[in-house]
Write a structure and sequence with these properties.
Distance between the termini: 7 Å
Largest sheet: 5 strands, antiparallel
Radius of gyration: 25 Å
Number of strands: 7
Number of helices: 18
Shape: elongated
Helix content: 40-55%
Strand content: 5-15%
Amino acid sequence: SVLLALITSSVAFRASAPRCSRPRVARPPACFEAIAKTSQPHGPPSETDSAALATASPAPALQPREVVATMLHALHRSNRGTGGYEAALRFISPTHQYRADFERSGKYSASFARYLRQPHKASLLGWDEYRWDGDTTLIQGEAYQQTSVRASADATWTSVRWLLTSKEVEGSGASQWMVEAVFVDEPDDAELAAVEPLAPLEEPERRQIFAQLDTDESGAISPESFVGVVASLGFPREQAEALAAATDTDGDGAITFGEFSALLSKVNQQASAAGSFARLVTDGVRATADAAQSPHDVVTKVLRALRDEPPYPLYGAEVAIRYCSPTNPAAQLTPATFATYLDEPHYAILTQWDEVEGE
């Protein structure tokens, strides 16, 4: 019953939001409002930015990006010892281990300073530029914002992902965004492509698709018929014709099952027309099969994919995303990003369960 409360047929995850102590409510500083609305890279904190940290506190009026911008400026090396770390701690979730120390003393602790000196946190202190990577994703009381930072104009960008949760302002009925976790240096797109393969269709599934296209049962698909199918999927006709010619590897004017099967095996060549076509067909076949399953079957399949030994890296996350409702923002996450959420303590049960019982 715990699992069924966490996962619906759309696999929408939600964490409970604990109550927090009464914060100092303030309007968002104008400088952070402006930063949150611009897309170009931002430089190091100005004197105005740093001065605004003295009064910066969580507030219902603050949007997730404004919170992240405040945190980045607070953690910048130029603001250490001038109230920056204290400002950062005001925006950290009450459940964070260093927030309790701060609540007791009003100052950041030596252990918090050591925590920030860890090698994988260095980019949060030593950045000279940062940028927003994509829009904020909101999922039932949680917000996810991707940023990148770098130490100089010619340095490599480092990925930093922020998880924020909506916390109730005690006694007010309002809520405010606070930082729950920060993940530094996730894989870039090239690395994701290398570790996120989509399993090709099995031979019986390929033969079934081939038979649907072999309308005259000749054992081959005519180039004209193949071009029509590819074009119907949204490909430009010129690209469809080029794909047909490339698929007909022996140039005999007909696409055999072997040639069609070889095309579908290119499902992970994401930067090519062949890969895009193979992925569309593969996703279509699996979506059709998924539609015939009951809600119980879907939940069981996702849970087993998350729990069992995967056939390849990130398989469980890939399956969970596949079954997310199109209206669920989680459906837009990459398997690598989705998998990092499963490391959170409140999601541990999804990968560590021993028995499942439907109700």
